[in-house]
Specification:
Length: 435
């Protein structure tokens, strides 16, 4: 006999509502439900029902042991409409073929070839920072992340069009963020069609240009246009997928890192000291980055507290059972990375920022910032190198001080610090230039 999936009662829902108002985030409410009802509970809103799964057993079930019983693609979700046949929203052999086609450009061996590009575009943005000025790090990190992604993976300088396409990128991200469409999919989207047209025009154009002027190398765009089995539409779907999945995540992570460092000046000083010990004139390599071990801990802890992808969404492909709970075919399931990262039975004082907890490895499947199993994040190695280089460069060149403005965790396409992370930037005397 299977068990009914727990549903929050009205007392728990009231507590959740209070937590939501206090934290200005739905995540506060989910944490209340999770602490009481984990590892599985149902959430029902008018027109929308999902089963939330929390904890290491649930993650292992969804990501590894029963992964073939789940589908990624959900035709009703805007993300499938936007990305069409992008690797992120495909299943089965077709997904595996797309992933194999892109893998070499994100392979560890390729990363050293991206280092100079990452430094170059980071410096390009940092050069614009005015001494002693307050800046919104959410915007600045997005600018760096966009330029870096386009400049390395597509070997395309995005700088001439970044301002022109800025709002279009934001509109597109807003389109796939949780919102009223969850309750009512006819909700109007002013400006979205135009934004998508602008981005598509640009992506089809860089595909045409690369076909006409091939370059040597295994960057993602070159790899894709070289294939005889991919037409421009299918390549556009992969480029848009990687553009969004690859920059919005790093933007969120970097902004949260800076926010948390600003909130914890002792951690900021420790990290600044570690960065200053590196030789700022020596060439940066993947090897040299391994010396920044406290930075690794700061990044890991930030990913634990504010995982940019805070849940994975699936549909059951069959009737299945998890720990006695029956999940009928076509149930929407969300495994929560955010809630798993804050389970008190695995994390001491889970809401505290303590980078040093990562001096030891977390237990399997308690920590999943890049997902897990065969469909884990294809860009994980790239992102970890990228974020470290950007952070190192910022701290080599500037001292940052957080301005006291309230920030809350906003569930957009990623988990973002909203309304932004305002910091005063102060140039360091010793200027570092590689180029
Ligand atoms: C801090 C940075 C990043 C984080 C935290 C992150 C997180 C994740 C997570 C959690 C998943 C799995 C989601 C699930 O199980 O439903 C995922 C998948 C994916 N990520 Fe990332 N990601 C990051 C950066 C990147 C980058 C830089 C790229 C591309 C350049 C990328 C491309 C993808 C793609 C295409 C998938 C789907 C893979 C597949 O289904 O086979 N991500 N990411």
């Amino acid at each position: 006999m299977s068990l009914p999936i727990p549903v929050p009662d009205s007392i728990l829902s009231l507590k959740a509502l209070q937590a939501m108002i206090k934290q200005r985030s739905v995540l506060g409410a989910l944490e209340v439900f999770s602490n009481q009802l984990q590892p599985v509970f149902e959430l029902t809103l008018p027109g929308f029902k999902t089963v939330m799964m929390v904890g290491p057993e649930a993650a292992r079930f969804v990501l590894v042991s029963d992964r073939d019983d789940f589908r990624w693609r959900n035709e009703a979700d805007p993300v499938a409409m936007l990305l069409r046949h992008g690797v992120l929203v495909e299943d089965g052999d077709f997904h595996d073929r797309l992933r194999r086609a892109m893998n070499p450009s994100l392979h560890k061996q390729m990363l050293n070839s991206y280092v100079n590009g990452i430094l170059h575009y980071t410096d390009h943005v940092l050069d614009r920072w005015e001494d002693h000025s307050p800046m919104d790090m959410l915007d600045e990190m997005r600018r760096i992340a966009l330029l870096v992604l386009m400049g390395t993976l597509y070997q395309t300088n995005f700088d001439p069009v970044i301002d022109q396409l800025w709002n279009a990128v934001l509109k597109t991200i807003q389109y796939i963020s949780p919102g009223l469409w969850i309750l009512w999919n006819q909700v109007p989207r002013p400006g979205y069609a135009k934004a998508l047209r602008e981005i598509d025009d640009y992506l089809y154009q860089i595909i045409r240009v690369r076909r006409a002027n091939p370059i040597d190398g295994d960057d993602l765009l070159s790899l894709l246009v070289r294939r005889s089995d991919m037409d421009d539409d299918l390549i556009r779907d992969q480029l848009l997928t990687m553009l969004i999945a690859g920059h919005d995540t790093s933007t969120a992570l970097l902004s949260w890192v800076l926010y948390l460092l600003g909130k914890h000046p002792e951690a900021m000083s420790q990290l600044e000291a570690e960065v200053m010990r590196t030789d700022d004139q020596a060439p940066v390599t993947i090897e040299s980055l391994t010396k920044l071990s406290f930075m690794d801990q700061v990044i890991d802890e930030t990913l634990r507290l504010y995982p940019p992808i805070h849940l994975g969404s699936r549909l059951t492909a069959d009737d299945i059972e998890f720990q006695g709970y029956r999940l009928p075919r076509n149930t929407r399931v969300m495994y929560s990375i955010y809630l798993t990262h804050r389970l008190p039975q695995y994390w001491d004082n889970p809401s505290a920022f303590r980078p040093e907890r990562f001096a030891t490895r977390p237990l399997p499947y308690t920590y999943l910032p890049f997902g897990g199993g065969p469909r884990n994040c294809i860009g994980a190695a790239y992102a970890q190198v990228e974020v470290k280089i950007i952070l190192m460069r910022i701290l080599q060149r500037y001292h940052l001080e957080l301005l006291p403005r309230p920030v809350h965790a906003h569930m957009g396409a990623t988990l973002e610090p909203r309304p932004g992370v305002w910091m005063r930037v102060q140039k360091r005397k010793r200027l570092t230039r590689v180029f």
